[in-house]
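_Backbone structure tokens_
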Amino acid sequence: MLLPKFIITMDGVFRLGMVNQHKHLLKPGDQCIGGGYYQFDFVSNRLLLDRESYDFGRPRWHLLETLKVPSTYRGLRIIYTYDDGSQEDFDVSEELKVEYYD
């Protein structure tokens, strides 16, 4: 079943798509440092991220200074919500430098 999933790589690349497994978003040489699921909130212009990858775990945002995001998503505020209730939402757009690529 195809689901909206995302990963982040050690190089800071953010990749998302409709896939069966998070590993299907990897390219040769990628080292994944977490992933989860996404949805678009067009009313508030946000890309909402949550949950975690079964294979790679939660995104380890603390390992990154810069997140490289496809330019298609320029202008969307990126928010990651922890589903355990023990941590506040992580405002990716605010906490990390975001670079856009084609």
The mean pLDDT is 96. The longest helix spans residues 92-95. The helical segments are 92-95.
